[in-house]
Amino acid sequence: MAALLPELKNLLYVLREKRRRQHGGDGGGDQCGPGNVYLVGTGPGDPELLTLKAVRVIKGADLLLYDRLVSHEVLDLVGPDARLLYVGKTAGYHSRTQEEIHELLLNFAEAGATVVRLKGGDPLVFGRGGEEMDFLQQQGIHVKVIPGITAASGISAELGIPLTHRGVANSVRFFTGHSRKGGTDPLFVAENAADPDSTLVVYMGLSTLPSLAQKLMHHGLSADTPAAAIERGTTPQQRTVFSELKDLAGKIAEAELVSPTLIIIGKVVALSPFWDCSVEEATSLVEAS
Question: DSSP readout, 61-100?
Answer without folding.
Answer: -SEEEE-TTS-HHHHTTS-TT-EEEE--EETTEESS-HHH
